Amino acid sequence: MTQSADGGAEGGRDRTTLALMGLVREATVRIHRPEPGYVPDGSDTGFLGSGFFIAPSWVLTCAHVASQGEGGGVNVVFRPDRHSTAETAVAGTVVATLPETGPGTGPRAPGWPAPDLALIRLLEPAEHACVYVTERPAAMLPGSRVHYVGWTGPRGGRPASVSGDCTVKGMFGGPADDGQQIRLGGDWMEAGMSGGPVVDLARGEVVGVLKSRIEGEQGGTAVGIERLRTLPVQAGAEDRRTDPYHAVFHAHDRHHADRHDSTAGTERTWVDAQSELASGPGRTLSPRQRIVLLGRLADIPPPVSTRALLDLLDGLPDVYSGDHRPAPRGWRDGLAALYEVRDGERALELVLRYCMAVISADRPYEAPDTADATQALWEWVRRTADDHLSRSFRKELDLLWSAGPGRPAPGRRTPPARPGAGPGAAGRSFVLLSLELRGWEQGRYDWRIAVGESDGDFRPVAEDAHGTALADLPSRLAAPLAEAFRCCDEPDSPAVLQVATGRALLNLDVDKWCLTPYEPPLGVVRPVVLRCADQEPYDEEWSAKERKVRWNRTAAGPMRGEVADCVGGIRVRVPDTGELRTLAHETVPLLCQYGGHPPAEALAGLGRVMSAGYGVVLWRRRAGQAGAVCTEFHRRAADTVTQAGATDRLPYAIHELRKSVRAGRIETYWSDSVALLYDDPHHPLPGAGQLLEAP
Fold first, then answer.
1. What's the rounded Cα separation, in Å, for the pair 327 and 306?
2. Degrees to nearest 5, angle at CA 568 with 562 and 573
3. Which pTM value belongs to this model?
4. In angstroms, rounded to a whole number, what is the distance separating the alpha carbons of residues 407 and 266?
5. Parallel, antiparallel, or unpaired for β 560-563 and 587-591?
6. 3-class SS at 557?
7. What does the pLDDT look like over 31-89, one tens digit per residue?
8. Edge-to-edge strand order for the sheet containing 674-678?
9. Most confident of 247-256, 570-579, 623-632
10. How many helices (H) and strands (E) does the chain have?
């Protein structure tokens, strides 16, 4: 390992490697407390850790470093001129951390959990260098060599810049943790280097952030840059203009594209250095082509949602969006998903098809320069095709362009509607949470999370078979559920969460869980429905047909609710299965007294309803009272079913009721304990072996 207070030569490296290391050091900064911060006499009492400029006026560091400032404020100390050792300090504010909340306080408090990332925005303009950040997911593979840079506290009265080389040993932390950490070995790391950049010198790009060192041993841990994709999503169109993820990476890509295009200055840029390396993203695009394209994409409004981007990628031949985790979020992420296609001309065709799909994609907003940006992207596509591809393919591009921006591109795949799906259900993905109570370890649960696709497939996201206590489930599930929701949510239309449990757990109030201390309950954030994973055996031939007939009838609408266990406020037994089968197919059973029955009797009554072929059932978890309150539930629940009109709208109707209860609207208090069974026979739960290939 080598170290230098003034960024001196590291020796034994070729010219390009030395240039890259210099570019990294120029963009690496120190994070200080706002007061006293760094002072010229070298006392440096406010040093917190390292960081680096990821885009103009944006610094990436560790959350445990940035959180030590007061009120979200820090000082960022750096050298604005590569030819001078003079430093400047600029005030910054912490805009986002991953996760959003950290550990408690006190000497025994645990460290900030992974991903342990933070974005800092400068509060005043400043000239500075920026690193080039990879767009490739999981760029740090076991066995690869990486370089790291950071700062340590004062040595001989001055802080020291430290760098070194490590080998990626592997990872720890499962996908459910939303923060797989990369294990680094082979070199000593110093206190204060947390937040510094980790660089792949073979490709010339920053791939991670140093998180921790191992006390008294060589090596440490890092977090991949791709974990920034899990930043909380800004859903509204106006919010998406300032969404931190898109703001940072659009600024990053425009900065490097502008540096490449500029004729001012003679100093080597990241693109110049990358062009001299043997490695690249499949070499489909040269580094210069790539940065120009990324700059064009950065001028276009981002995808309307991760779900929309996944659908766009799945519409391209031989591209499997589910292979990329965390799921791609911006146009640069989608481009990186194409790099694995290595068939020369075919790979370039795929890139250009992707660009045309971007041009025709829906947009969350229109900016004054969007039309010019779209035209510029098209001109780049056309020029690239003219130079490298056949006349027949260029003609196909002309037809795609003629469809016009914002309109569906010819040949683009649209997910087919599911059989029996009601209005608005076609093409909608949902999140499935499967909970299983451990019979040999009471009070602990195994769980699996998957994304249910419109074609009936399930894509696993995370699972845990080690048993989680009920009280710990919300916090344990927060990160993997957030990733699953991001893959499904549409603007202003959150995806449904389906919770699959055994019948004994159907009263589990998952809709009241708060995944983080600052979020409202799940049922207020999105529709939450229940599915039964262990229905009793019954006449399979009759039931399969009857279940689909009933579901298709309520899916087409209209529906009507009918109370099945209460007459005039008096609890009665749920009818036998044979009697329930005689009710009209548009019927949705309402169980007013479910919470008042002994558990065994309540489960038996619900079991008879499901055995009769009903896939949609509404009930109260708490016992109803006699008289007016009970009558209120009968009337209001029936009205809710009727007004929803069709099966696919009912989860959203219940969601609106839960939001209204949260807002204090008294007329909706009757629905406070309502649960909805929503068991779609056209989208059966996966079998026991279907979700065993979790990432």
1. 7
2. 65
3. 0.86
4. 43
5. parallel
6. coil
7. 999 875 555 444 556 899 999 999 999 999 999 999 988 778 999 999 888 777 788 99
8. 458-469, 444-452, 430-437, 497-501, 528-532, 674-678, 616-620, 587-591, 560-563
9. 247-256
10. 18, 24
